[in-house]
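Records of this kind hold a single protein each, on a pair of labelled lines. Below, a sample record shows both lines together.
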Amino acid sequence: MTWDALRTPEERFTALDGYPYAPHYTEIEGLRIHFLDEGEGPPVVLFHGEPTWSYLYRKLIGPIVEAGYRVIAPDYPGFGKSDKPTDPDFYSYDRHVDFMDRLIEVLDLTQATAVVHDWGGPIGLRLATEHPDRFARIVILNTALFSGRAPVSEGFMAWRSFVERTPDLPVGFIMSRTAVTDWPESVFAGYEAPFPDQEYKIGAHQFPLIVPLDSETKGAAEMAAVKDALALWDRPAAVIFSTEDPVFPPRVGERFADRIPGAEDVVLVDGAGHFLQEDQGEAVAGHIVDFLQRNP
């Protein structure tokens, strides 16, 4: 099937703050999908969330590569340098898992580590648990699985309500509201770069709206299955959460660690909000490298 899609002009991405990485592309269902591919060694796949893209991980890529690993950071359809379908119905949990599954197949990754954040949690953790032949370790950063078994937080509902009444999402403003440290204006420009105007933001707008709110909502059963699979995950797992995230506070991380047999104790990162990779990227990279080196 082919989809009508927009492609962000390349000049939007020139001279981005701290993002010198060469682009790589593959085509899936007629859409050009972008990913970074840096370094050599055991693969580490960085799954971003909403409304971010691989730019979010720029502070982590260098230290992980320098430690001897190959880092792959994809952009989902609708985000970053990937093509952006204009039909809201394109955006679904199953479809984005399928696109990332096919990218992993194209790259033929094995013994990989999945690093997940925000929407990257449902996507990356499902891939890891469904493909133990490809993934050997998981690292969980500020995320959750929405199975409908428990009510969602007030923080998330406030975010969803904002999105419902704001069709043209102000991405820079959204990011600024989460910042705990001081981010330079060039960083906000980096997050706004993929979205020249509202037409390019369909995916960013849809993702909060497709989060299941009850067990009958599409995607809830699939996320429940991921939760159940994590309860059997006896391979290495790290849970790294920030201390100042109103949507996914530390207790969410503690529930992950309690559920996963192979998980280490939760690592808490001070001085960071929801986007801990931005607030404390060097510290987060250090924790991930330590975990990888302890679990070759």
Summary: The chain is about 35% helix and 15% strand. The chain has one domain: 5-294.
